[in-house]
Each structure stands twice: as structure tokens, then as C-alpha cells.
Amino acid sequence: MNFFKGKDDTSIATFWEHLESLRWVIMRVMIVLIVLLIVVFGNKEFIFSKLIFSSLNSDFWLYTSLCRLAELLAFPALCPGYFNIQLININLSGQFMAHISTSFTIGLLLAVPYLLYEIWKFIYPALYPNEKKSTGFIFLISSLLFYTGAAVSYYVIFPLTIRFLGTYTVSELVPNQISVQSYLSTFFILIFSLGIMFEMPVLAYFLSKIGIITKQTLRAGRKYALVIILIIAAIITPTTDPFTMTVVALPIYLLYEVSILVCRNKTKH
Q1: Statement: residue 28 has pLDDT above 80
Q2: For residues 201 and 259, what is the distance between their CA atoms, to the nearest angstrom?
Q3: By CB distance 3.0 to 4.6 Å, which of 13, 208, 224, 238 could disulfide with 6?
Q4: Mean pLDDT, to the nearest integer, of 202-215?
Q5: Dihedral, CA of residue 240, residue 241, residue 245 and residue 248, to nearest 10
Q6: pLDDT digits (tens, 9 = 90+) for 176-190
Q7: Contacts for 29 with CB less than 8 Å, ≥ 6 apart
Q8: How many CA atoms lie within 13 A of 27 on its CB side?
Q9: pLDDT of 30-86, one tens digit each?
Q10: Distance CA 5, CA 91 (A)
Q11: Mean pLDDT calculated for residue range 136-162
Q12: Which of 106, 110, 67, 248 has the alpha carbon at shortest distance from 187?
């Protein structure tokens, strides 16, 4: 990679030309984010009622699926049962600010492929011919992995977390009154965390390419990785049943195995 290459691969770009190019990248990204923010802001009913707040009651897809599975396996403990979590707002401008911040965050989520495209287009002139062949594919895979992680969080991990923490009480004398800000922050933290965690194979590929890790390194660390993954799963979903922990840990461990596949072998001297 040579960051001093011009766009025609023959000229030499100056520092100020790079800076000007970066300025236009930032401007285009900001315009896209603003447009997406406006679109999301104008669809409040669908965004909040149909998407974000859908896991607050037992009608959500995951809960009904678990109940059907519990009936099929004759294991009633799998079924979450009926519940309905109520959210509260304690700040005068809380709901309006939640609307704005949520619109921006969802806009950012939707803009991930475009952000990666702009990064790819910015560094493309600096790449050598052999690097250009694989870089575009890697950025595409990065987008797919991010959204896969976000989907796993939305459909599995967050519902299990909110079901447990939202209904857990130390005493009947202390009812849960969950603020909408607390709910939204947990929601988006888990979405982004899983999205980033699913980038593990891409990170492993780059680390192996520069010689920091190899297939042999990851294979030798399997048992330690499994323990760490189980700990992460226990933190993300602090439930007592092994089923929930397995549901969370399994995709993360599969990503570890995929990371082994994309890594390079140790170079023999």
C-alpha cells in the first residue's frame, strides 16, 4: 500500500490533495447520515412500535418460537411465558431526545455499507494491484458480517436479555420501572457490540496477513477461546439456563472457527 499514489496510479498525490479528498469523503458521509436521519425520524411509529419495542412483550418472534419448541420437546422451562414490560420517561424532553438519538443511531447502522464503501474508495488508489483484487471483497464481507451480528443481537440476544433483566426482581416490594433511555442504550450497545464482534474473521485475516497470528496459533488456543467465549456469553445473557448461554456462545465460537479458516499457515523457513 502506498498512500502517496494519485488516482491514476502513476502520479504522486500531495498531502493537501489527500486532505481535500478526505474532506469530500466526510462531507458525503455527513449528507448520507442527515438524509437517513430525516427518513428514520419521519417513520417514528414503525421504528419504535414495530422494531425497537417489539421484544417488550411475549408476542415477539423468539418468545413464541421458544414456546413452540418447549411444547415439542416437552420441556416447559424453555417457554418464557406471558409478560409485558412497561417503559417510563422521567425527563421532560426525554422522549423527544430519545427520538432524535435513535434516528441518528439507526441512520448510522443503515449507513455502514456506504461508510465502508467510502473508506474503500479513499484507500483504493494507494493499493497495489494484488491488494485491489481482494480489498473490495473484504469490505463487502465486512458489511455482511456486521449486519449478521446485528441481526443475531436483535432476534436472539437482546430479547433474552430484556426478558431476564426486565422481569427480574429481588422482591415483590420493588417493582421494575425501566426508563426508555436505559432500554434504548442497552438495545444499541448490544446491536453494535455483536456487529463488531462478528468482524472477527476479517480481523483475523488482516492479523495473519501481517504475521501476528497464524492458523496454528488459533488452533492451539481453541480451549482458551472457548472459555473466554462462554464467559462473554454469560455476561451478555445473565440467565441461569444453559440453553440461552449456548444460543449466544455458539455463533461466536463458529466465528472463531471461520477465523481459523481464513488465517494463513505458519511460514516455513
Answers
A1: yes
A2: 4
A3: 13
A4: 81
A5: -110
A6: 889 999 999 989 988
A7: 111, 114, 115, 118
A8: 6
A9: 999 999 999 999 999 999 999 999 999 889 999 999 899 989 988 888 888 888 899
A10: 53
A11: 87
A12: 106
pTM: 0.80
Measured CA to CA in angstroms, residue 114 lies from 30, 126, 202 at distances of: 11, 19, 18
Q: Mention every residue, 6+ apart, whose C-beta is less than 8 A from residue 20.
A: none
Give the Cα separation of 55 and 146 in Å (integer). Answer: 21
Please report, for the chain, the start and end positions of each structural domain, with discontinuous segments joined by +: 15-198
C-beta of residue 176 within 8 angstroms of C-beta of residue 166: yes
Hey, which residues does 5 pair with through a beta bridge? 12
Cell of residue 56, nine digits? 417488550
pLDDT computed for residue 20 by the predictor:
81
Q: Among candidates 265, 259, 1, which has minimal Cα distance to 131?
A: 1
Write down the pLDDT at residue 78.
82
Work out the angle at residue 86's Cα, subtended by the Cα atoms of residues 85 and 91, and round it to the nearest 5 degrees.
Answer: 140
Q: What is the reported pLDDT for 238?
A: 53
pLDDT of residue 269: 46
Report the distance separating Cα 47 and Cα 37, nearest Å.
12
Say which amino acid occupies 197: M
Predicted local confidence at residue 262, as pLDDT:
83
CA separation, residue 253 to residues 3, 70, 148, 197, 222 (Å)? 36, 25, 15, 11, 9
Of 123, 122, 198, 191, nearest in space to 159 by CA = 191
Helix pair 15-41, 112-123: axis angle to 10 deg: 170
Q: How far apart are CA 269 and CA 267, in angstroms?
A: 6
Residues 6+ apart with CB under 8 A from 79: 63, 66, 67, 70, 71
CA distances from 221 to 132, 211, 216, 256 (A): 32, 17, 9, 10
The amino acid occupying position 160 is L
